[in-house]
Amino acid sequence: MTPDAIVDARGQRCPLPVIELARRLADVPVGGVLRVLADDPAAAGDIPAWCRLRDQEFLGEVPVEDGPAFDVRRRH
Amino acid sequence: MAHPGYFDAAAAAPLHPAAREAMIAALTDGWADPDKLYTQARRARQLLDAARAATAEVFGVRPEEVFFCASGTVACRLAVLGTLRARRRVGATLIHSTVEHSAVLGAAQAHVSSGGTALPVPVDRVGRVDLAEFAAALASPGVAAAALMSANHEVGTAQPVEAAARLCAGSAVPLYVDAAQSLGRMPVPPGWSVLTGSAHKWGGPAGVGVLAARLGEPWAARWTPPGPEAGSPSLPAIVAAAASLRAAVAEADADAARLRPLVARIRATVAATVPDVEVVGDPDDRLPNLVTFSCLYVDGEALLHELDRRGFAVSSGSSCTASTLRPSHVLEAMGVLSHGNVRVSLHRETTEAEVDRFLAELPGVVAELRARSGVIGL
Known about the structure:
The complex is a heterodimer of chains A (about 80) and B (about 375). Helix content of chain A is about 30%, strand content about 25%. Chain A is an alpha+beta fold and about 80 residues long. In chain A, strands 1-2-4-3 form a 4-stranded mixed β-sheet, with helices on one face. Chain B has 10 helices and 10 strands. Chain B has about 375 residues and is of the alpha/beta class. The interface of A and B includes residues 15 and 49 of A.
């Protein structure tokens, strides 16, 4: 899947990747997908947890060349 | 109050007066080598035997089924590896929940490194082990032992030890229960084969771990008592540990009746006064003295420092620091937010006034940290 936008949070420690996700998802149209590149070990748990708390759709971790990436679909 | 703002009993509870008194008496009276054959040694031996008998009584075992060792971590390691060794002829698989203490997971890792197998059993959102998965794991070939903690050290959720013990008994698998957080706070659930605790969690001195093993059970035929790797705690520390365990158990119901409503107040007030907070763990079936929550967009270490500056000692499972690269494996396994995490654990000296001061200051602290990083309204 090609995301509508990509945010690069690599090298950032928690909670910064989740803050970036929250900021940038607002710029994606409803139904669109934001990809978060994040290599902080906390991101793998915190991104789906944020989606649950904010009622956004966590699509899962996606294999990309430049390290861990997580796709989120904007629901509202 | 002797330790105002100290809310980290799950790491180490303030010394119980019974421990202090027993320790001082034993330092005076029990300094000789209990293994020698003269009057002073006999006095030391009597103190040690009395401590062992008192501890055995609390656990409902015989004195020769109680072993003292150098720490809670050592006790966990002896319990896991000792039970597996006794069951070597049956198999080499250890079942454990994903939220066990790192001391238990470390022993499981050592078992795997030496060629054994570990089967982790997942937990639900509140951190309770999935009993269906636990039963399925027990049906695997070559299961030597199972490990399930009495209650979780990070989120407080009580585990279904009694039900797990019934499943284990049905498969003739010994169940090891790490009771570090619940000893002296809640009754020990029945059905365990091996149990461990750590004295400084119940108000005893640091440096005393205790292991109890039901050696009359069939699996224990090949049990070998812990050797020199157990370390030997000082005799006065053992005496103090036993005295404070007995006192804590005697006071447990009264302490729980006082602390449980304070924990409930923290859970309700934090959820109501701090925006974007996730209170984690089971709301009811839990330790009476511990509560955990995570604040969205907040750096856990910054939160700890800010609370410390205001006189509150709490702990965090967050990894927003240079010292720990991974977030808490417990929060990860539950699938809850790991950043901005705070664990508050109360003890027998905690007062309502201290808790109310914490609750009054927390919302401002969180708001200030959020304002500093510009995340208000996100």
